[in-house]
Amino acid sequence: MEGDDCEFRYGDGANEAQDNDFPTVERSRFQEMLSLLGLETYQVQKLSLQDSLQISFDSMKNWAPQVPKDLPWNFLRKLQALNADARNTTMVLDVLPDARPVEKESQMEEEIIYWDPADDLAADIYSFSELPTPDTPVNPLDLLCALLLSSDSFLQQEIVLKMALCQFALPLVLPDSENHYHTFLLWAMRGMVRTWWSQPPRGVGSFREDSVVSSRVPAFAFVRMDVSSNSKSQLLNAVLSAGHRQWDCFWHRDLHLGTNAREISDGLVEISWFFPCGKEDVDVFPEPVAFLNLRGDIGSHWLQFKLLTEISSAVFILTDNISKKEYKLLYSMKESTTKYYFILSPYRGKRNTNLRFLNKLIPVLKIDHSHVLVKVSSTDSDSFVKRIRAIVGNVLRAPCRRLSVEDMAHVARKLGLRVDEDCEECQKAKDRMERITRKIKDSDAYRRDELRLQGDPWRKAAQVEKEFCQLQWAVDPPEKHRAELRRRLLELRMQQNGHDPSSGVQEFISGISSPSPSEKQYFLRWMEWGLARVAQPRLRQPPETLLTLRPKHGGPTDLGEPLWPEPLGVEHFLREMGQFYEAESCLVEAGRLPAGQRRFAHFPGLASELLLTGLPLELIDGSTLSMPVRWVTGLLKELHTRLERRSRLVVLSALGVPCTGKSTLLNTMFGLRFATGRSCGPRGAFMQLITVAEGFSQDLGCDHILVIDSGGLIGGALTSAGDRFELEASLATLLMGLSNVTVISLAETKDIPAAILHAFLRLEKTGHMPNYQFVYQNLHDVSVPGPRPRDKRQLLDPPGDLSRAAAQMEKQGDGFRALAGLAFCDPEKQHIWHIPGLWHGAPPMAAVSLAYSEAIFELKRCLLENIRNGLSNQNKNIQQLIELVRRL
Length: 888
Hints:
This protein is an alpha/beta fold and 888 residues long. The chain has a nine-stranded mixed beta sheet, sandwiched between helices.
């Protein structure tokens, strides 16, 4: 097969010498592009995800790239912020003496594209056009390919995920002429989950959520043969776009975001999906559909074209000319069961020759005259787009090929393409994950039988420790009661310490103990996805249903009962490790176990390494709503040891009731990985570490920022909920007390949750008040523009029930007078932000709003500016944070 491919790619022996030279020239051009973009240093030691997330001087500036070496970092920065303008590669230069108007660049590109294909000299000119110079923008697809080829697997995955949120077409096959292979990006898409509604009707039963890697959907490929005066990408964008608003999923030359000819990205295959919203008058198609786009001519990229013919339900071929060479290429597809459609232009190419070859191809490709479309650029584009949609719809209604991305990767392997997921470290990690998850038939039973230290033993121990802690602050605590609590706690801890880690936990510990950092990260990602696939119960409901999941106000409340079913996750395995460490440490402190007999003392070190690699770790246990203090302080001690001199820390927390967008806000602001989405993930508070670049740490005043997401801890309980309210207020006090900066996320209401007001009152008395920012997020109405981000508004009305009740909890007497004394009740001192709606358009085909991205960047800049100017509480080192955890 490979011999046939080479024959079709290179033609007869007359051009053999030229073709043998081609890879050498391409290799040189690839290196020149890397040098131009400043990426040549990342070919051995790849650019990592942690490298791209560091806080630096540039994190505080809304700067425009001035030289090509700025472009990769500008792209990553804007992509992290989900900025729809990320693909723009135009540069702002100090001097542009020879800048050419955009119109002339477009004319030059057309002259290159429409050379007579029979002219070998013209083909050489097209293939070896000059590289971009610092005065001209780099083609965005070249930038993307160069950056992906310079990134490790985890940064590639992050880039693809963020591109999906921006509704950009995603790279599926990545060309690499330097190393003479093409890579199918299966791992890069692993973990992407999309939601949609099936038709009809729209309701709870019609809502779907699934991984794009495992969903089997029909695919339609669009390719160019020789030259075409019609743009594939513009046609695809029109087909995918509902209504009159066109979204440019696929980059095309008329966007003027970098109009240079492609240099290294020919051979790139992109993929994008259409997902229905469940409304027949809006949906273009009634079910999910994938669209594939090959960059470059199929004659030069025969392997990619062969792949597309084997994974697609239909292939649309855009061309102006069908020559003898192209006829031979297509004739070789006579055994294919794929449907083929031709899109021709009547004004270019050789009409009679085209007709002659098409007549020959009709019996070979099993097509008829309805499979040949003529697009006249001056005709109504809308009617042509409707015709394409009608063809796709007809194919969908008939039995057709439906493949998942995993299925496509299997076809790619058989054709000889490299699949990124096939590396040894990735496969070893996957095997280890499967050894754990294959034993999980029912997640509740697995937690009971395999994660034995959690559940009732941990809940009872946590309750005893809370009571014991409250006694510490009693005026005259009875010694007998204190001794009884100590006895009960030791009994529970001895019971826990009598267990050994289960086989699943031991396998997990082996996975995170791997000496290979990459294998360790692969394992954690595989565990996240494997557990998500098998864990039950899993909520699969529309977002408006999830927004109603709130605790019941009033009446008796079980403090250990979750607000929603909590899916089994990586955090449960880490909790189990934490409980083994807690039980053992408690017995050592009480003198019941010699320190030399400890078995789990190394567990905090393993967890601290995970924190340093960017994994969010649980700070407050979501099942018991308590902090395992020995585990957390042990982890922080290990972190302090590993960071050595770079241990100055700022703690930034985000509080708010569930589903107010606070996790999405943090992820967009700093590129973090806190759980978000429709299924309302873990309930506990999680922390993630961000590194400050060494060159900026002195100016910012810290070496790392520890970000805490309150998750589902603050459920919005009213004071009438009694114990539930008091618990939420205590947890809010704890998180704010640890923080230098606190972001309060509010949605659709100007009232601060009562538990957070209560925390403000407590902290006001201690004198420890973090720098605070109130963020009002527009969750639903994406069409109504809100106030500017820094507009002032009255945060609190005259005394209301929540205000009075919160003050009464502190026995302040006149509740409102106590609250009015707080700084945030002064309109002149309020730090209030109005964040526009997240989506531009209607999900699931909506992209992230540019206004949302820009407002989040402004908030980030303000937070960093406040940290740098010392407006937050005094920055602390990790040792001081440990002491603060113990006190609070």
